[in-house]
């Protein structure tokens, strides 16, 4: 029985959703296990996010709201300034400085923030470990993390795992902010994200455009759903085919689909068994080079790709009467549609009607991981019910963003829809659903 | 006994769905998306219902008829939603088939359609278990337990986990029956699903009487087994029919 299309559709979406889910789950577990006797939770920490106002449980609601809004405003302004500095540095080609700065900050975050979280875990569960071993383990963890995130040659799984753990560490710290400030901050960041990615002259938009016009990697911490083929082959043609996400500094917000630059088309003109491989050289897709390979070569190269890349990244070759059709398994209808609209060459030879597409990966900024998890972690401090509601809201928001991504074909902010839905569902659940469900369930009424 | 008890209750309610998820759903990304979206639909329906009933809460726990109205209205609302879900699914199926034609892959098989229905039902069931059982389990991880007056034989968490298990089964498989009934235009199937749902909901009213859970829960499980058997017979009939068509 031939495999049905159910197995191929939606793979990319799941590829992004599963790490986000893992990140949120671990943050919730951490918040739960540490909140009971956490040394920091009693004394609120002073960070950039609550410079102006330190929340006090005895303050009135108005005071809290005002303070929280001020905090959020200051934090967003800080982030905007940092992002602009980043863009300016990138514009003047201080790439090495940026790279080293990112290495340092990742080292710092993993080492100190991660270290303090490990310490509190050790205290909480009274794990017997001596300080020298602990220090050695932490140092190794940190160094391997920095290496795997910023240099090639490491397995992509390790890289992804470290990205997720970096997100977890930062998010766990953010959950230590006071309640009102957290909500104000989340909403403000979602708004900022919207402006920074979509408005003309927004810093993230500028950064994405700069990076794509230079044909370089984005200078930011970005989670890649899947390795791009060009990297596997060790060649640096990392063409950002479709930018669908914004970017920023380490608390960044980005989501982008990347076509790896090998767009395999087939044109079975006039019944010849000729298959042309065209590679899309750059973003605009203007200089495409017609390699004009014969079909056996194409089959060959596709097979080589499949052996190179990981299991999710394979393709099949179906032989038909007249032509070789190279079908990539990972197309979803939406992606396919996008490919049809976007790649001009395909439009040019739509007389063949055969499906084609390069393998693509979706990139999600680490900032999205962090703030999704902050929302869920904050919800975990109230009740489990709000956690589930927020999780579902965020995931569906992410799904909507991914769908929009394939419709709009440009960098999109991943925070606004998810955070809005998350906040709405949190308050609806807390105010409406909880009394209803608790009222019926404690009477053992269910339906 | 604390963390272990909590995990035990959770697995009691969600264990079968978990194994179903791992063995059938998790291999196909599209089915995972279906589960998630149907869970979201159920959550939204619960929020809307609680919004409507918010004004009347808290209900007095001495009279039973307000609860009967509540359960009736909720079941009616959710069955209406199931119809809507079916309409959306129908359009999705057309899109999927069109897409399959374009990439020259086979169209959806009968088993695929059933799996989508199963995933939709699992989403509903999991949402039920999560919101009615799992979210109240937090105290079970602590050192104490909790008994309700009307059912003093078992801890509250155990009762709610058992009820949730029955409802997960009913929800999961009634979606398969319903989708099949709509597709075939079979009136019996179409009526069977809401009536099972309503009957199961009404059986929880028995818990209201003191010691009623001794009778109510076995009855509830009877409904679950009934749904399961009905679904199994229907699926076998469809599959053999399908095979015969394929042979001829």
Automatic annotation (TrEMBL), chain A:
What GO terms fall under cellular component here?
endoplasmic reticulum membrane; gamma-secretase complex; Golgi membrane; Golgi-associated vesicle
Name of the molecule in the record: Presenilin
SMART domains, A to Z: PSN
| Biased composition range(s): Basic and acidic residues | 278-306
List the InterPro entries hit by this protein, alphabetically.
Answer: Peptidase_A22A (IPR001108), Preselin/SPP (IPR006639), Presenilin_C (IPR042524)
Native species? Corchorus capsularis
Instruction: Name any one GO molecular function.
Output: aspartic endopeptidase activity, intramembrane cleaving
What membrane topology term does the record carry? Multi-pass membrane protein
Q: What is known of its domains?
A: The PAL motif is required for normal active site conformation.
Sequence intervals crossing the membrane: 12-34, 68-92, 104-123, 129-150, 180-199, 385-405, 411-428
Residues covered by region (Disordered)? 260-313
First-tier enzyme category under EC? hydrolase
Q: What keywords are assigned to this protein?
A: Endoplasmic reticulum, Golgi apparatus, Hydrolase, Membrane, Notch signaling pathway, Protease, Transmembrane, Transmembrane helix
UniProtKB/TrEMBL annotation, chain B:
Provide the Gene Ontology terms for cellular component. Answer: membrane
The record's section on InterPro entries has: Aph-1
So which domain of life are we looking at? Eukaryota
* Transmembrane segment boundaries: 6-25, 30-52, 64-85, 116-137, 157-179, 215-235
Question: Which keywords annotate this record?
Answer: Membrane, Notch signaling pathway, Transmembrane, Transmembrane helix
User: Which compartments is it annotated to reside in?
Assistant: Membrane
Membrane topology according to the record? Multi-pass membrane protein
UniProt GO BP: Notch signaling pathway; protein processing
The similarity annotation says: Belongs to the APH-1 family.
Q: What is this protein called?
A: Gamma-secretase subunit Aph-1
Give the organism, scientific name.
Answer: Corchorus capsularis (Jute)
State the taxonomy lineage.
Eukaryota, Viridiplantae, Streptophyta, Embryophyta, Tracheophyta
């Amino acid at each position: 029985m031939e495999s049905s299309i159910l197995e191929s559709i939606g793979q990319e979406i799941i590829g992004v959703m599963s790490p986000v889910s893992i990140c949120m789950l671990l943050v919730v577990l951490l918040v739960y296990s540490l909140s009971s006797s956490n040394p920091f939770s009693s004394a609120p920490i002073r960070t950039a996010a609550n410079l102006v106002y330190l929340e006090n449980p005895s303050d009135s609601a108005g005071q809290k709201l005002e303070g929280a809004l001020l905090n959020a405003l200051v934090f967003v302004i800080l982030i905007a300034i940092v992002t602009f500095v980043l863009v300016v540095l990138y514009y003047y080609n201080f790439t090495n400085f940026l790279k080293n700065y990112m290495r340092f900050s990742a080292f710092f975050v993993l080492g100190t923030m991660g270290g303090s979280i490990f310490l509190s875990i050790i205290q909480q569960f009274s794990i017997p470990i001596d300080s020298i071993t602990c220090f050695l383990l932490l140092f190794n963890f940190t160094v391997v993390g920095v290496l795997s995130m910023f240099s090639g040659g490491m397995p992509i799984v390790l890289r992804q795992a470290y990205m997720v753990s970096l997100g977890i560490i930062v998010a766990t710290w953010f959950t230590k902010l006071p309640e009102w400030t957290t909500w104000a901050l989340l909403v403000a960041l979602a708004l900022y994200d919207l402006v920074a990615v979509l408005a003309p002259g927004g810093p993230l938009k500028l950064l994405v455009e700069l990076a794509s016009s230079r044909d370089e990697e984005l200078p930011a911490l970005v989670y890649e759903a899947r390795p791009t083929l060009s990297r596997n082959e060790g060649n640096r043609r990392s063409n950002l085919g479709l930018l669908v996400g914004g970017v920023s500094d380490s608390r960044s917000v980005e989501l982008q689909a990347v076509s790896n630059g090998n767009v395999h088309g087939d044109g079975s003109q006039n019944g010849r068994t000729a298959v042309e491989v065209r590679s899309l050289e750059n973003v605009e897709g203007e200089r495409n080079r017609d390699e004009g390979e014969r079909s056996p070569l194409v089959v060959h190269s596709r097979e080589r790709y499949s052996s190179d890349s990981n299991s999710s990244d394979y393709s099949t070759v179906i032989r038909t009467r007249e032509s070789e059709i190279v079908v990539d398994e990972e197309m979803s209808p939406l992606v396919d549609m996008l490919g049809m609209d976007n790649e001009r060459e395909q439009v040019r030879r739509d007389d063949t009607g055969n499906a084609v597409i390069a393998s693509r990966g979706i990139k999600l900024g680490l900032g999205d991981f962090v703030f999704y998890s902050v929302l869920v972690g904050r919800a975990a401090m109230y009740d489990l019910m709000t956690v589930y509601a927020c999780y579902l809201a965020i995931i569906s928001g992410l799904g909507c963003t991914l769908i929009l991504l394939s419709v709009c074909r440009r960098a999109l902010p991943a925070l606004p829809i998810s955070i809005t839905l998350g906040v709405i569902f949190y308050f609806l659940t807390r105010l409406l659903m909880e009394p209803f469900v608790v009222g019926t369930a404690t009477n053992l009424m269910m339906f | 006994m604390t963390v272990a008890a909590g995990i035990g209750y959770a697995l009691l309610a969600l264990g079968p769905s978990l194994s179903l998820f791992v063995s059938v759903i998790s291999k196909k990304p599209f089915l995972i998306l279906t589960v998630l979206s149907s869970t979201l639909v159920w959550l939204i329906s619960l929020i809307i219902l609680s919004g409507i009933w918010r004004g009347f809460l808290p209900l007095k726990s001495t009279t039973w008829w307000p609860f009967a109205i509540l359960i009736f209205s909720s079941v009616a609302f959710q069955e209406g939603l199931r119809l809507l879900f079916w309409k959306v699914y129908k359009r999705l199926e057309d899109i999927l088939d069109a897409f399959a034609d374009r990439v020259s892959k086979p169209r959806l098989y009968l088993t695929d359609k059933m799996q989508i229905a199963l995933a939709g039902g699992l989403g509903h069931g999991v949402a039920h278990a999560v919101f009615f059982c799992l979210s109240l389990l937090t105290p079970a991880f602590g050192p104490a337990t909790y008994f309700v007056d009307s059912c003093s034989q078992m801890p509250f968490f155990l009762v709610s986990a058992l009820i949730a298990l029955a409802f997960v089964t009913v929800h999961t498989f009634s979606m398969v029956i319903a989708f099949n009934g709509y597709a075939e235009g079979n009136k019996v199937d179409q009526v069977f699903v809401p009536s099972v749902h309503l009957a199961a909901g009404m059986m929880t009213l028995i818990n209201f009487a003191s010691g009623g859970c001794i009778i109510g829960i076995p009855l509830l499980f009877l409904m679950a087994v009934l749904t399961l058997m009905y679904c199994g017979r229907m699926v076998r009939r469809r599959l053999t029919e399908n095979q015969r068509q394929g042979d001829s």
